[in-house]
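quick one, 110 residues, struct below
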Amino acid sequence: MRTEVDEVLVALADPVRRQVVDELRQRPRRAGELADSAGMSFPAISRHLRVLRACGLVEVRALDEDARVRVYQLRAEPFLALRAWLDQVEGFWTEQLDAFSDYAKKRKQE
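---
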């Protein structure tokens, strides 16, 4: 069973999708802008955007001025879930390294 974090990691495993995320960190963009910056066709970037939308990293909205124009933007929630998981992993390794450090100090004193 895949979790939200699993889906995010799978989506971010692709370098093109990471590039899209980097572009969207700067500001919301149209799919055409993302395709141009990635040097890809519109259908190709659309497939990547579909993956990013499916895992919740990206959402699409229509512009107020022109409802036909779709703009993609990042969503914070999946990144927060990923950060929470990374914090747990980091906590585990911090505990392990502290325990090893204590062990090494104890052995040195013997």
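The helical segments are 4-12, 15-26, 31-38, 42-54, 76-109.
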